[in-house]
Amino acid sequence: MHDGTPSGQAPAADVTERLGYRLKRTAAALRGAMDRALREYGMTVPQYACLELLDQRPGLSNAELARGTFVTRQSMNVVLRGLQDAGLITRPATTDRGRALPAHLTDEGHRRLAAARSAVYAIDQRMTDAVPERRLAELLADLDHMAAALEGMPARTVSAT
Questions:
Q1: What is the full DSSP assignment across 11-29?
Q2: What is the rounded CA–CA span in Å between residue 159 and residue 161?
Q3: Which of 21, 66, 71, 115 could form a disulfide with 75 if both were Cys (CB 3.0 to 4.6 A apart)?
Q4: Could you tell me the CA-to-CA distances from 109 to 54, 120, 126, 141, 150 in Å, in that order?
């Protein structure tokens, strides 16, 4: 009987010792810290991420923003609608180039992003400071390699036999 573990690898005695668990725990801690900080600015993490991307690359479409913020297109529609209703972005009602509606920050969007950015960067710095400086470049490279390995990996099916 197959237990779902890769061949040659025993099931984890303690799942909390697995790399994936540790990464998820770190991601959840980061998300929680960002949620708490951004609440003060009336923003969610996806809204903040969207504003950051639009500040760097004005005119991105819904699909481009969804990919860049790791949410679905449907979720990005909700994010963009909320940002537009709050007066933080503008989008045309129609466009000449297909269905993409390019988004741009308003003056208020720039102001709100600037205010929230220092809080988010402080959280990122706290996390970065927890890694010895001599190991940081290697850790960042390792994280990039892990993401690339998973993004290029075909979906694996687990046999029930």
A1: PPSSGGGSHHHHHHHHHHH
A2: 5
A3: 71
A4: 10, 16, 26, 33, 35
Place of tokens 């009602």: 93
**Which of 120, 138, 146, 152 lies closest to 46, judged by CA?**
120
Task: Give the number of other Cβ atoms within 10 Å of residue 83's Cβ.
Answer: 26
Tokens of 148: 């690339």
Distance from C-alpha of 150 to C-alpha of 137, rounded to nearest angstrom:
20
pLDDT tens sequence across 124-154: 999 999 999 999 999 999 999 999 999 886 5
Which class for 119: exposed (0-12), middle (13-18), buried (19 or more C-beta within 10 A)?
A: middle
Give per-residue pLDDT as tens, 60-93. Answer: 989 999 999 999 999 999 999 999 999 999 988 7
pTM: 0.80
Give the pLDDT of residue 92.
83
